[in-house]
Structures are given as structure tokens and as C-alpha cells.
Amino acid sequence: MMILETPLTELADELASAPAHLALRERATIARLARVPLTRSHRAPNHASDLGLRRNDDPAEFLRDAAAAVGIDSSRACASYDPSAVADAWIGDQISEAELAGHIDVTINLAGLWDAAGHIARVLVDASRLPSQPRALTYVATALAATGDDRAEVIFKTLAEGTTASEAESAMASVRRAAWLTKRRGQHERAAALLVGLRGDLDRYAAQRRIAPGDRDALAGVTFNLEALTAVRRGQHSLAAELLDQAVRLLSAGAVAMVDEDQRRRYLAQVRVNDAQLTAQDPHRLEEASSKLDEHLEWTRAHHRESLSEAVALSGYLHYRCERWNSAAELLHEAEGLIADEGAPSRLLSVRKNLVATFAGAGSTAAAEDVMARISKDPSGMDPRTS
């Protein structure tokens, strides 16, 4: 096997040794590896395995600004990167599955080149040369989903039924397939039916001792969370609330073995947020939603700090909606620093807009103008005074 170098891996070499933003150094360090690490910090999120199948532009924007802050022009590497070189190397048996996943990881998580990742995936599908391992296959399916290719569903189905995937990996592939159906194709009934069937599979896996009861509960909790989204999109808000209650209950108890504990807490944090956001859709229940988010914020500080920035930002937003200007400003300012540290420009813009609105509501014109200046001059939070 050869070591395939691309303009992106060469850029990563340069960035990893530069005095850059900590989030950029972490992402570059991962990008230099021939294999994808099993874990990574909240500063280097894995968009290639995101359950929401979101096409997130943050990696590209952050790379551009953070590299420029240390005098490195990342645009040249991105412009000269040829994704066909990666696809051809895989088809020609010049790189391993692990290395293929690594190159797709760099393409998405360091550079944010979703169309390039989609190109790699399409070439592999067209050539009938798909990888067989869960990570690489998940990356291929995610890249297809991000570029609107309907074959993403086929890949997720293949992964769910594949012999190399564990029961937990198979279940998560089915969840991603259901997410594709409801979020990208509007097939809410079909997605819900798939999730209900998956819970039956999970019961069978637990009965056969292939997963622990706690694993079954955690994975079932994930299915209830996504099923709640299908209910919301069908206008069934009461049903959605019931499903979210089920998700919280199942994700809150039991010892896991095949599901990572950090992942379970991450899923639980997301369900708690979804529950509060569903409550907030009713303008007469804003105080109740705010109380839920305040409680969630305290839980997050104690149990899952990787989810803290989202919890602080949303809690601050609800304080703003409830016109509690001082506490809203305090929370949103904390969120601004946390999100700047994580290198997420779109989320940073959102929290800053809410901070501007909060200061405006409080009549603090000068403070609002200071935040607007940060939006204009430092969109990615490079100024250390922000974080």
C-alpha cells in the first residue's frame, strides 16, 4: 500500500505545526493521520458521521479564517485538491479502507469540501467498489446524502444489513436511513415505520445477548427521538412530546456495553434540547421551556460538558425571549466564548445575533454595536478576547 498525499494532507502538515487556533490544530492533527481516530474532542466534530445528515459549512469557513490568521492561504490547497485521486487510489487497491475513510474525513471535517466528498462517493458507487467496513461505508453514505444522491439510502440499508457491522452499528445505520427519509425526502410515515421495526430488532438482539439491556434502551431512545421529529413534521405535536419523554427515560438509565457512554450522554443531551424546543414552539409556554433549558444546562455542566455550548446558547436565547435581559446577556456571552473556542462560525453568528437583540432589548446600544463589530471583523472568533 502507498501513502497517498494530497494538497489537503500537505496543508494539514503545515497547520499542525503552526501557532494556530486550538480547534484548527486538533483538526489538522487528525487530518495528518492515515487512519481516523476512534474519538475526538468537541473542537474537532465529525460531520461525516452526523446523525442529522447536515451539510455543515462551518469546517470550510473556519479553515479559511483560522489559517489566514497565521498567514496560511488554505484556498490554494482546496482549489488544487482532486478527489478523483482518492477514488482512483481506492479502486486501484493502492490504499486501504481505513485510509479511504481518512481521506474522506479530511475532505469533510478539515476542508468542508462536501461536493468533493460526494464525488469520491459517486465514483465508488458507479464502479461498484464500495468499502465494507462500517466507518468508511458510513462516510460514503453521508457524502451521498449531503449532495442529494438518493443512493445514500441504499448504502445505509446495505450497512444495516451487512455482516461486518455490529448490532449497534447496524442500528445506527438504520437510524441514519430513517433520518434521510424524513429530513431529505419527506417520507415521514416510512421513516417512522422503519424506526418502530428497528425497536423490535433491538429487543431481539437483547434477548439473544448480542447487546446489553442498557444498549437496547439507549438505541431505542435514539429511535424515539427521531420518531418524534417525524411526528412534528406530520403536525402531531402531542405525540412528539410523548415520544421525547420515552427517549429521555430510555437514555437516562442502564449500563451500556456496545454503545459508548459519551455517545449516550450526547444523545440524551440532544433529546433534552429537542423537548425544550418543542415546548418553546407554543408562545404561551416560553417560561416552561426556559425552565427546562435551565435545568438541562445544569445537567450538562455536571454530566456532559461537550454539549455545554449548545445548552448555554439555547438557555440564553430563552432568557432573551422571556425578556430577562441581564441573565440572557450573561449566558449568551458565555456561549459566545465557548463556541468561538470550538471553531463553529455559523453557531457563533447565531449566538451573537441573539446577543445583539438582547442588548437592544435592554437599551444597551453601545454593547449591541460592540457585538455587531465582532460579527463584521471577526466572524470565526479568532480574537482571543472572544474566547
What does this structure look like?
By secondary structure, this protein is mainly alpha-helical. 71% of the residues lie in helices and 0% in strands. It is built from 19 helices and no strands. It has helices spanning 7-16, 22-31, 58-69, 74-80, 83-91, 97-110, 114-126, 134-146, 151-161, 167-184, 188-207, 213-233, 237-251, 261-280, 286-303, 308-321, 325-342, 345-362, 365-377. The longest helix is centred in the middle third of the chain and has 21 residues, at 213-233. It is globular, with a radius of gyration of 21 Å. The two termini are 43 Å apart. The mean pLDDT is 95.
Relative helix content:
over 70%
Structural class: mainly alpha
Count of extended strands: 0
Query: For the residues shown, what is the average pLDDT?
Result: 95
What are the secondary-structure elements, in order, as H or E? HHHHHHHHHHHHHHHHHHH
Distance between the termini: 43 Å
Largest sheet: none
Annotation field: number of helices: 19
Radius of gyration: 21 Å
